[in-house]
Amino acid sequence: MADRYLHVTGTAPGRFLTRKLGLPQPARLRRWTPETQSLDGPLLHLTAGDSSVTEELAALLAATGLPVTDRAGTAARPAGIVLDATAVTTASGLGDVHAALHPVIRSSAPGGRIVVLGVRPSADDHHQAAAQQALEGFVRSLGKEIGRGTTVQLLRITPGAVASAESTLRFLLSPRSAYVSGQVVELTGAAPDPVTDWAAPLTGRTALVTGAARGIGASVASVLARDGAQVICLDIPQSADELKRTAERLGATALPLDITAYDAAERIAATAPDGLDILVHNAGITRDRRLANMPADRWAPVIEVNLDSVLRTTDALLTSGTVNRGGRIVATASIAGIAGNNGQTNYAASKAGIIGLVRSLAPRAAADHGVTVNAVAPGFIETKMTAAVPLFIREAGRRMNSLSQGGLPVDVAETTAWFAQPASTAVNGQIVRVCGQSLLGA
Ligand code: NAD
């Protein structure tokens, strides 16, 4: 179901009328296309206080290929602003954050990207912890007020391992992250695996995507293939025709298989004799009803497809060594798993379960198997699943976020592709919302 409101506000009379009525003004988001692969303008590199990472960071930003300046007002309107706040360790030091951004915020280009760099709040120094946690409130508020399709994130890095942030900075400072805003990403500092071609970073990798016949899964398969991966698309046998079409379009392999089948992991392993480098658990279902009206036969399949089969296949594929070292597992949560949702006790439980799985398994999977485990948590994404939502709730879902519009499957796919990169070794145990900074949840 197309977003007609977005279409109307994209026309001059529509914009005039909706502005007069005080209605939301969604900006047209700048997403990746073959013609617009990077931001359209310079990066402004600012520093709050006396940072120890200025030179390394400058080198990373220069490697993006965008022109970089460290002085406001010297260049065209910045398309991206990186504020290094890693040195902010006191409440008074927060004044440096204000002093750096206040003069330039108005001049940032529409559809811009703002990334504030911080460090993990300390367990031993409550002044440092207060200052670094303060950045979270700052970033989330700026994301809500800035408008014009600009996104704002907090990226916590390890000062001794700035290079581990390259894939994340490239993602957050690009059109690929158009619908990701108000997020806090914390990197481990683990060294990145080498990337020979940033335009096709998944070359030579084999990926399996569940629920890939349509919707978000088909888009994930498509973006992973675009980035060079050889993809196996899995979906239920009842969707075999749609699955075959999707796989053929991408030069991928179709695997008609119900992920809840007892031998699913074995059959996946048999389809990938050289192992998997990327495993994307995307298949998911809803069976909505309030708990008082929800029989067990609406509860059980949601837990089974969305959570239990993910746990089972992950365990089996890790233990059997089917997921190769350097591998990437990406699961699919939901903002319903963070905020809860009326009529979705089963679904929200399954998606919150995914968050628990990721947080617990990530450090062990890295230590034992050299594999990262992360999750995307989509907000309102325009798919068949959300087209089935009643009109009023659908409209609320679309508008109740900082970008005043629903996301597209490709937004979730781009985030998945960033997790999947060889250079994203330091991205582990993260739950990244792809929700345009939805008002629901944290
Ligand atoms: P969709 O219904 O359009 O597609 C889901 C796909 O999963 C379908 O092709 C379906 O056949 C497949 N599938 C279902 N059960 C399966 C099974 N047992 N084995 C194999 N494949 C199976 O849904 P979507 O909107 O593309 O959602 C994809 C994922 O994103 C789901 O996990 C969903 O919960 C999550 N999500 C979606 C939204 C949204 O707004 N669309 C929001 C939050 C989370």
TrEMBL record:
Family according to the record: Belongs to the short-chain dehydrogenases/reductases (SDR) family.
Q: What class of enzyme is it?
A: oxidoreductase
Molecular function GO terms recorded: 3-oxoacyl-[acyl-carrier-protein] reductase (NADPH) activity
The domain of life for this entry's organism is Bacteria
Which parts of the sequence belong to the Ketoreductase domain? 205-379
* Identification of the protein by name: 3-oxoacyl-ACP reductase
A matching Pfam family:
adh_short_C2
> PANTHER family this protein is in?
3-OXOACYL-[ACYL-CARRIER-PROTEIN] REDUCTASE [NADH] (PTHR42760:SF78), SHORT-CHAIN DEHYDROGENASES/REDUCTASES FAMILY MEMBER (PTHR42760)
Q: What is its EC number?
A: 1.1.1.100
Q: Does the keyword Oxidoreductase apply?
A: yes
Which keywords does this Swiss-Prot/TrEMBL entry list? Oxidoreductase
